[in-house]
Amino acid sequence: MTPSQTRRYFGIGLVAALIGAFGLVAEDVVEGETKTFDDAVLMSLRVPGHPEQPIGPNWLPEAVRDITSLGSYSVLTIFVLLVAGHLLLVRRRGTALLVVLSVVSGSIISTVLKTVFDRPRPALTGVAEVFTASFPSGHSLTSAVTFLTIGAVLASTTESMRQRIFYVGSAIVLTLMVGLTRIYLGVHYPTDVFAGWCLGSAWALGCFIIGNALARSRHLGDTTASLTSGRIV
């Protein structure tokens, strides 16, 4: 087995594990088994006797709201358009399409799952305005899909291990920050965020694996055609 095959099978196994973790959490949420844990975590982040007020200095909630906006649809759309535009300029149309399709399909999955589970939001007010159901966290899911897809694409453009670690590490940190802010603001339960992370990561990784497989197939096809016609690429 070649190293590339090993990485591919490992990636597929990781996708399966992440989807499995999402399924287990979803089952526990539906059965109400996570309520005690979810409530305990949320209340540990609130001022005693004032559930509408997060712990910490007065400036912290505002700073957290700024960070959590990185996972909003409007901000993520700007990220995706900029990255896709860059990829088109450097003639990587297939990669640009992969990024756009990955993020758009992930957003659709998030919306559908929210409708299916229809979990009420935490009963905390005064921190942030929300309009959709709670499970899974849309910010966590779509930010994972967006940042991890972009991080993986950037990592694939270099042979430097340090740069690859930086790109993927930055994507992971941004994803974690967005999810944690949702819990701090009290607009999502911890299990909403964890489920969003799992499914979003699985979706990003799955799309990247498929994109790589298609690119490899196309490259092999072009090489075979060139050899058959007597040309060298």
What does this protein look like?
This protein is mainly α. It has one domain (3-221). It is built from 8 helices and 2 strands, in the order ααββαααααα. It has helices at 3-30, 35-44, 59-68, 73-89, 93-117, 138-155, 161-184, 190-228; strands spanning 46-47, 50-54. The chain has a two-stranded antiparallel ribbon. The longest helix has 39 residues, at 190-228.
Low-confidence stretches at least 5 residues in length (pLDDT < 50)?
Answer: 219-233
Number of helices: 8
The H-and-E topology, N to C, reads as: HHEEHHHHHH
Helix content: over 70%
Number of structural domains: 1
Main β-sheet, spatial strand arrangement: 1-2
What are its keywords?
8 helices, disordered C terminus, mainly alpha, 233 residues
Short description:
Helix 3 crosses helix 7 (161-184), helix 4 runs parallel beside helix 6 (138-155) and helix 6 (138-155) packs parallel to helix 8.
Blueprint (SSEs and pairs):
Layout: H1 3-30, H2 35-44, E1 46-47, E2 50-54, H3 59-68, H4 73-89, H5 93-117, H6 138-155, H7 161-184, H8 190-228
Antiparallel strand pairs: 1-2
Keywords: Membrane, Transmembrane, Transmembrane helix
InterPro entries: PAP2/HPO (IPR000326), PAP2/HPO_sf (IPR036938)
Pfam families: PAP2
